[in-house]
Write a structure and sequence with these properties.
The protein is an alpha+beta fold. Helices cover 33% and strands 19% of the residues. It contains 7 helices and 8 strands, in the order H-H-H-H-E-E-H-E-E-E-E-H-H-E-E. The chain has a 6-stranded mixed β-sheet. Strand 4 and strand 5 form a beta hairpin.
């Protein structure tokens, strides 16, 4: 059953939405996201990380359909990156989306195991067509802080910026890992059990983020359908704490 704290959080979320003139119909994901944030905010002072998320989401006032559109937008950005990576590349998704907290203003966090991608290729990813990279840094093996225990990773940050074609912000935040040997272990990078792994083929050919969000959102006790969009509770809502999420 939903804990007393969970019930209170939903009630608080509903009051905030009413105050912001956001109707309940068509905003089920927004309500659940707000309730998740509010469980970290026992008082009415909306400060810090979770308070910023509350303010951000209320200001956006996004619909369930807009969340789906955002996930498709992020998928397209990932496909543009995947097209330039070798066949053995793998994508590890973490952050709110992997916990069933997707929003129309969500970014995408994770790691990319670039397989046997040469270092010089990793350094040129900033020039991918359609992307304006805000920052890219590549750490070579002599940088001991960037090495795995096996000492075989080249790590860089790639921040997807403004699309030159559409003018829309993709907000994809990834750590790129180019390994010369061995296998990428996400636990070495501090990623929790909620992270999800996708092959390059899955990224290129499937609605992988939509399917991930649907799985994780339904694990809370909701039922979500697309085309037309419909969301309702399929039994008691279970909202796992951030550090207690385990994959089924």
């Amino acid at each position: 059953m939903l804990s007393q704290l969970g019930k209170v959080s939903l009630q608080r979320a509903e009051r905030l939405m009413t105050k912001a003139n956001i109707p309940a119909q068509g905003h089920a994901i927004l309500r659940e996201n707000l309730a998740s944030y509010l469980e970290h905010l026992p008082t009415e002072e909306y400060t810090g990380r979770w308070g910023e998320k509350v303010s951000r989401d209320l200001e956006a006032g996004y619909t369930d359909t807009q969340v789906l559109e955002r996930l498709h937008q992020l998928e397209q950005g990932m496909r543009e990156l995947a097209a330039h990576l070798p066949e053995d590349a793998n994508f590890w998704i973490s952050g709110g989306i992997s916990k069933g907290r997707a929003a129309a203003v969500s970014d995408l966090d994770g790691f990319v195991d670039c397989g046997g991608l040469p270092p010089e290729k990793l350094q040129t990813i900033r020039d991918l067509p359609g992307w304006n990279s805000r920052r890219l840094s590549v750490f070579l093996p002599q940088n001991k802080a960037a090495l795995s225990p096996a000492g075989d990773w080249l790590i860089g940050n790639y921040y997807g910026g403004l699309s030159k074609e559409t003018g829309q912000t993709r907000d994809i935040d990834l750590i790129l890992v180019g390994r010369t040997d061995g296998k990428f272990d996400p636990s070495d990078a501090g990623m929790g059990e909620q992270s999800a792994c996708f092959s390059r083929e899955q990224v290129l050919r499937t609605d992988f983020l939509v399917e991930l969000f649907q799985q994780r959102f339904q694990a809370k006790g909701y039922r979500i359908e697309f085309e037309p969009m419909r969301i309702d509770a399929d039994g008691p809502v279970r909202r796992p704490a951030e550090l207690e999420w385990h994959l089924g």
